[in-house]
Amino acid sequence: MTAETSPKTGTICIVEAIPQPWRQMIVALMEGKDAAEARATAAESANREAYDQGMDDAADQILAWLASAVGGEDYIPCDGTEEWGGDVHGTIYAILKAGRVLDDEDGRIAKIDDLTRATAAEAQLAANRERKTFPILNSGGARFDYQLVADHGGQAKANHYQTVDRLAERGGLSWQELHAVLLDRKFQKVDQNTAIVECRAIEGRYLAALEPNAAAHPDDAAVDRFAIAMKAKLAKKRADGRGGWEGPDCTAAFLSQLLREHVEKGDPVDVGNFAMMLHQRDERIVPILSALERP
Description:
Blueprint: E1 3-5, E2 12-14, H1 22-30, H2 35-70, H3 84-98, H4 112-129, E3 133-135, E4 143-145, H5 146-151, H6 153-160, H7 164-169, H8 175-182, H9 192-209, H10 218-239, H11 252-265, H12 268-280, H13 288-293
Helix pairs in contact: 1-2, 2-3, 6-8, 8-9, 9-10, 10-12, 11-12
């Protein structure tokens, strides 16, 4: 045990080299407390010290993870606020600045959005790798994205009088049957190779839209997914013999009228397609009063 003599009083003082909790027990004894009280003081100190050490260890691990996640390992820990919470918050701020998540000058968020998008993209990629699949009848074990089929569950039930879950339990659909479901139309006999190619193309676009790169904004990913739904609806209408929106016989007034009618019908995909047609013709939606005034 290390001790030193006080220069002022000449008495023996306990110095920092004596480990806790023994230091407090000795102090208690020197103050005249009995042995039982001294042991209680030491035990309380030991418990408190263990708790504090546990908090420190947990904070160190979390701060180390944060520093690694944002690339801010060269941060300088905060130590001097005289409060545990103050030091932790100060250290977090130092890590975010070191990782250039916060702007060095005014503290504004600099790249939190990029980090969030990267994490979301990684999670989506992992989810896509584990996606549930739908069986294809008489195909030698071919499978198809289950959720994409479920998205067209209404057409599947209209064509086959069963839910997608029940169809999967009974072996799935053939490529030709699936082709009709994905195009939201009644079954029509098509060449099997054509059905396979078109179904896989629809599936590829669908999955690609679910796998935005880390830099893609959520708006961009949403537009990609919406475009897939628009293309599927356009393909269905082409199969029904509809078309000609890009031709000279179609007018902005007519397309504007159809757009308004489909707003009332409630399908945003139809509304989006009519808006796309006007946009691609470099035309604007004709005001309703102007349309009514036309002969």
